[in-house]
Amino acid sequence: FAINMDQLQLGEELGSGAYGTVKRVLHRPTNVAMAMKEIRLELDNTKLNAIIMELDILHRAVHSSIVEFYGAFFIESCVYYCMEYMDAGSLDKLYGVGVPEPVLGRIVYFMVKGLKFLKDEMQIIHRDVKPTNILLNKKGDVRLCDFGVSGQLEKSLAKTNIGCQSYMAPERIKGESQNALSTYTVSSDVWSLGLATLEIALGRYPYPPETYSNVFAQLTAIVHGDPPELPDSYSEAARDWVNRTLVKRPESRATYAELLSHPFLLEDAQRQVDMQGWVARALQWRDAKRQERIRKQEQEHQHPV
Ligand code: ADP
């Protein structure tokens, strides 16, 4: 079935990113809660139509590690993208001061399974692996979203891409600065996966902005510096796993199959991990932080300095 705006009852805003806002909506004909992303694009109808058609292959991306796609449509210059509503939101808001190793193992396992599925079954390279694109629900499911399926959409978004936290592999950073086309292979995603894993473990982006005076210094560190590592407090297996992803030479990085059969994820498979309990605690922490921020803002508003 094709989704359209008339069938949707709009709910609260779930968040906003670089390209638009995400709202919770109710699809009335099916009574399914969805998340609807609005992406404003200054394109003509032919191009917008092409994007909608390219997005259509997402209907085949059905996997327990992938956020389900329900459909997309456009109105005027906005593309609306409807997907499964993940009621715990994105991982960047949940990892707090870092997640314990068993939880890390489980999250990473789901991520690799999802990325491998996209690659093997859909011939899709994600291209934007980072904690904001990992969504969770209260049942403890971990799913990937926002992967590159529409060439037209990527092209239109690329122009506005300004991030101060780069998950790009060294070869991509070099490629971009030389204006080279298509230095992107699946191993570039493996680097981003490793960097995201490190961030989830540490509770912060691994190239902290305090250390680098500007984005250029940060990118230079990624290209020329030693790759960051997990601290000693993690198991040998976990540290080695991350080391296998953050290898500067793309040819030498681990493949998804190697990462899945690595001791870190073999150990993970043997463990019982209460993901549901962890998500519940992470949500409490996230919401307490939010309340604190709102209180602070109110105080500043009442007593401006
Ligand atoms: P970004 O551009 O930073 O990736 P998005 O625009 O994709 O951000 O999403 C903004 C925020 O909306 C996310 O950080 C997340 O909290 C929320 N969000 C996105 N998709 C969903 C979803 N399917 N279910 C619930 N929340 C979502």
Description:
It is a single chain. The chain has 305 residues and is an alpha+beta fold. 42% of the residues lie in helices and 16% in strands. It is built from ten helices and eight strands. The strands form two sheets. A five-stranded antiparallel sheet has the order 1-2-3-5-4, covered by helices on one side. Bound molecules: adenosine-5'-diphosphate. Adenosine-5'-diphosphate binds next to strand 1, strand 3, strand 5 and strand 6.
Q: Report on the biggest sheet.
A: 5 strands, antiparallel
Beta-strand content estimate: 15-25%
Q: Helix segment count? A: 10
Q: Per the principal axes of the C-alpha atoms, what is the gross shape?
A: globular
Give the helix/strand class.
alpha+beta
Strand count: 8
Provide mean pLDDT, rounded: 92
Q: What share of residues is helical? A: 40-55%
Poorly predicted parts: none
**Spatial strand sequence of the major β-sheet:** 1-2-3-5-4
* Terminal CA distance: 55 Å
**Secondary-structure element order, as H and E?**
EEEHEEEHEEHHHHHHHH
From the alpha carbons, calculate the radius of gyration and give it in angstroms: 20 Å
Q: Hetero groups bound?
A: adenosine-5'-diphosphate
